[in-house]
Design goal:
By secondary structure, the chain is of the alpha+beta class. It contains six helices and 14 strands. The strands form three sheets. A seven-stranded mixed sheet has the order 6-5-4-3-8-1-14, covered by helices on one side. Strands 9, 10, 11, 12 and 13 form a five-stranded antiparallel sheet that branches. Bound molecules: zinc ion. Zinc ion binds next to strand 12.
């Protein structure tokens, strides 16, 4: 078995994802704190104000209207996951791939479905479909918010996908399966990935052996009842609207 150096490969979560699923959209963790824990990752911002994407140590927000802006280190998040990304292996996509084949391709990179993995995928995409969550004034569960989520379609676009694979047994902490966010190379568009068709891409991956979870010391978090089974909500909230 390949040995990994002991300081490596930790996924940091600013809160368990279940809190976000239950509608806790404010946890006041600063991007400054998040960026100390990693240079690649994703999440959202306080009040569920858009999709967050962190790549090469810079944080970007894709708003509910699809606009992209760099996020200041003072911005606050209720949920973000990051790692200090080190590419441990790289594969290439050299011809156009339907989304189902792309998913199968990514699954083959996993040595086991019980491991965590960070991914960075740079390339040209024939098609990309994303969504972005709109800022919330009053707090509804995530599954309600994403019912009417704005989606965006792009064709023949260069860009980067970043994100994680999380095993199903960690689903109360982090979105299970593959969870990827997209940012166009021209910095004008992006969002939470719903589907894509890569034409040519380099896929860099890192296995993550350790998990570090912050439990927020906010009244909302400390008084939330986590009894409800949120697995179904999570599945609906993170995939195409209308599916399942
Ligand atoms: Zn997302």
């Amino acid at each position: 078995m390949a040995r990994m150096s002991k300081d490596d490969s930790t996924l940091f979560l600013s809160a368990p994802v279940n809190a976000l699923i239950e509608g806790i959209y404010k946890e006041n963790t600063s991007l400054r704190e998040i960026l100390e824990q990693g240079d690649l990752g994703l999440g959202t911002l306080n009040d569920l104000d858009g999709e967050l994407m962190i790549v090469d140590g810079r944080a970007w927000k894709i708003s509910g209207k699809g606009q992209v802006e760099e996020v200041s280190k003072d911005a606050l998040t209720p949920f973000a996951c990051v790692t200090h990304f080190k590419c441990l292996s790289q594969d290439s996509i050299t011809e156009p791939m339907e989304y189902a084949l792309f998913q199968a391709f990514l699954e083959r990179l996993l040595p086991s479905p019980n491991m965590m993995m960070a991914l960075k995928i740079e390339g040209l995409f024939e098609q990309v479909r994303t969504r972005s969550v709109p800022r919330q004034e009053c707090y509804r569960p995530l599954v309600e918010v994403t019912k009417n989520q704005p989606t965006f379609d792009f064709a023949n676009i260069e860009g980067t996908l970043v994100g994680f694979y999380t095993p199903p047994f960690l689903s109360s902490l982090c979105v299970p399966g593959f969870h990827l966010h997209f940012l166009a190379k021209n910095g004008r568009s992006g969002g939470h990935l719903l589907s894509c068709r890569p034409a040519k891409a380099v896929v860099s991956v890192q296995l993550l052996r350790y998990l570090r979870v912050n439990l927020p010391m906010t009244l909302d978090f400390m008084t939330l009842d986590f009894q409800r089974d949120t697995k179904k909500d999570l599945r609906i909230a993170e995939t195409e609207p209308g599916k399942k």
